Hints:
By secondary structure, this protein is mostly beta strands. The chain has a domain at about 30-64. The protein contains no helices and 3 strands. The chain has a 3-stranded antiparallel beta sheet, with no helix packed on it.
Amino acid sequence: MSDPQPDAKPAQPTPEKPVVEITLPPIPNYSLSSECPACGFPTVRRVCKVRCDRCGFMWDCSEL
């Protein structure tokens, strides 16, 4: 076993960062929107799925 170094200092507790809560407006009904809620790019409907070709955001019929 190795002994601790004599110059080693004990770890100092880090100060807690304040918690900031952000309230966002509700996401609009996807079935009525043809715009991606994540990036604003037009969406594409494919059978039961709606997908954004830019960012990959996707939802299916269970979420509509």
